[in-house]
Amino acid sequence: MNTLAPATSPSAARTLTDPDTPFAVVDIHKTRRNIERLAAKADRLAVALRPHVKTAKSLDAAALLHDGSPCPITVSTLAEAEAFADGGYTDITYAVGIDPHKLPRVLALLRRGVTLRILLDSTAQAESVAEASRQAGLPVPTQIEIDCDGHRGGLRPDAPAIVKIGRILHDAGCLDGVLTHAGESYFACTAEEQRLAAKNERDTAVTAAERLRAAGLPVATVSVGSTPTAHAADDLTGVTELRAGNYVFFDLVMAGLGVCRIADLALSVVVTVIGHRPEYGWIVTDGGWMAMSRDRGTAVQAQDQGYGLVLRLDGTLVPSLVMTAASQEHGTLTARDGAPLPDLPVGTRLRILPNHACATAAQHQGYHVIDSTRTTNTAPEILGFWKRVTGW
Predict the structure, then answer these.
(1) How far is residue 37 from each of residues 49, 231, 233, measured CA to CA in Å?
(2) Is 38 exposed, middle or buried (0-12, 13-18, 19+ CB in 10 A)?
(3) Can you tell me the distance from the alpha carbon of 380 to that of 351, in angstroms, rounded to the nearest whole number?
(4) Distance (Å, rounded) from C-alpha 224 to C-alpha 369?
(5) Hey, CA dihedral for 152, 157, 160, 166, is it positive or negative?
(6) Cα distance between residue 254 and residue 265, in whole Å
(7) Domain ranges within the chain, ordered by starting residue
(8) Where is the D-serine dehydratase-like domain positioned along the sequence (predicted)?
(9) Residue closest to 357 by CA, chosen among 309, 293, 285
């Protein structure tokens, strides 16, 4: 199966020395390995896997998920849902609380034969969905968002409104099930904390589903997942599907939590050294926060990785060198713990590993694709270019 799109960048780049910097790079070997790891875990837990495509936002990357054929997916925007529907995906969950103004786009996808599930956590949203479904003569499959850890939206599993919302949706033929996301697991710093977060995520979702069933309401879907809990879960009894997205690329936050190794990070950004400030101990690059994002997710971890760790083009770490500051188009590299700065002349190309793969990927229109198992010199060959979906 060919999962690589042709190199469609304007430069028709052949190696990482060719495109103008900064640009995003994906290692297809590491991406495949990350995908296979979680797929095997889901198989062991006997639960369906519904990958979240919000990190890569790429049809080419998604082709690696299920041997090139469309599989059930999760999206974070309707633009993603529409693009993936165009690519043949027909089983999609839009896992962001629905804005009633967007329901015409939801209905348009349903009319195309796409099973598009939406999410909500209020009676106002449920009433809007029920009314739109009745007017269209087309039920909108809807999940109730459950709050398992106070991270963002959703209803607590004991909230009285859950049954009321369930009834509104059921009466309109729209009730599909419940969904929760253990967002606080991104701050669970040990394997045991992550295991407990996964258990709480499962228990919360199953409790909410049982409340609906006890009220005589059908619950087809019990959906859980985050990258840390998906990898930490050891029992998903009562759950029908597992969601995760960051795991496709991983990042320094996940490495800092111990969910993956730095060697598993599949996304990096190529930058060029454009100056030196020896009086400050700085190496200056052309990759600022517009290339890396403002995300500083490792700042709360035991090892703060600044804006990212530094690799040479061949993927080897530059010892002690960290991207510690960023302005819009400038990145500042400094040595950790008083180590000497390496000799990196102006024009040297480097790769930066990001804190948060989703945020960094969002800064780019696509990815130049390499395969680390095929690297034979310091300038890896570019095998293709994967476009990203943008917008909302």
Answers:
(1) 12, 9, 13
(2) buried
(3) 12
(4) 31
(5) positive
(6) 9
(7) 90-244, 257-387
(8) 266-371
(9) 293
**Model confidence over 260-279: pLDDT tens digits?**
999 999 999 999 999 999 99
**How would you class 390 by CB atoms within 10 Å of its CB: exposed for 0-12, middle for 13-18, buried for 19 or more?**
middle
**What's the Cα-to-Cα distance from 330 to each of 23, 234, 248, 315, 322, rounded to whole Å?**
14, 44, 28, 22, 14
Q: Which residue has the tokens 């910097």?
A: 21
Give the CATH number of domain 257-387.
2.40.37.20
d(CA 155, CA 147): 5
pLDDT tens-digit readout, 59-117:
999 999 998 899 999 999 999 999 999 999 999 999 999 999 999 999 999 999 999 99
C-alpha distances (whole Å) from 59 to each of 71, 102, 340 are 12, 23, 43
The three-state DSSP-derived secondary structure of 159-199 is CCHHHHHHHHHHHCCCEEEEEECCHHHHHCCCHHHHHHHHH
Residue of 167, 151, 174, 149 lying closest to 98 (CA atoms): 174
Its pTM stands at 0.94
CA Rg, the chain, in Å? 22
The amino acid at residue 305 is Q
Nearest to 229, CA basis, from 194, 204, 253: 194
Eight-class DSSP state of 55 = T
Matching CATH number, 90-244, of 3.50.30.50, 3.20.20.10, 3.40.50.1000, 1.20.1300.10: 3.20.20.10
Q: How far apart are CA 145 and CA 142, in angstroms?
A: 10
Distance CA 323, CA 336 (A): 10
The DSSP code for 57 is -
HEC assignment per residue over 241-270 = EEEECHHHCCCHHHHHHCCCCHHHCCEEEE
Cβ proximity of 253 and 270 under 8 Å: no
Q: Which residue reads 């963002």 in tokens?
A: 152
Q: How far is CA 9 from CA 5, 207, 369, in A?
A: 11, 49, 11
